[in-house]
Amino acid sequence: MSISLAICGYPMWAKELYGFADHVPETEEYGVKSFVYRARQPFVPEKIMAVLNGELPGVIRAKGHFWIATRPDWVAEFSLAGALSSVKPLGTWWATVPEDRRPDHESARAYMQVHWQEPCGDQRQEIVFIGTGIDWPALKARLDAALLPALVAGRPDDLPDLPDPFPMWRRAEVAA
User: Fold this and answer.
1) What is the pLDDT at residue 119?
2) DSSP 63-75
3) What are the residues facing 78 on neighbouring strands?
4) Which pTM does this prediction carry?
């Protein structure tokens, strides 16, 4: 019995896994596309919360990290799967760690070199949106409108005092 005869009754994922020529990937069959949003300015907290909690037509999954102007030390993570979404602290940006306390192993230096851009170091917006029929120019315009204007942004220690509707984030305390 040939493999093609043995697999013909298998579900679509098996056909995808084993690379059958007659299988159309879901990305083509259903028009699933992804878009990555990147920016180097911080978000205005109220504006980005409105975007992330608002309508995201066509988006079925999103995940990534971002920073807000009121919390320049924090890497925030956004995750959306269907109707469930969350924003939570992920850690701190290397740019906010004193240079003598940053790791000096090769992979960390390589990461920082790739992601570092003055004046804000590794602080950035990087979120992938996945779905069908996403109006990417409209979504990108909404995200861009949530950024702190470049003329105001400056260095992280010069950021303006803005209202911040996100819940309080605390660092985990380490037992001695």
Assistant:
1) 84
2) EEEE-BTT-TTEE
3) 64, 87
4) 0.77
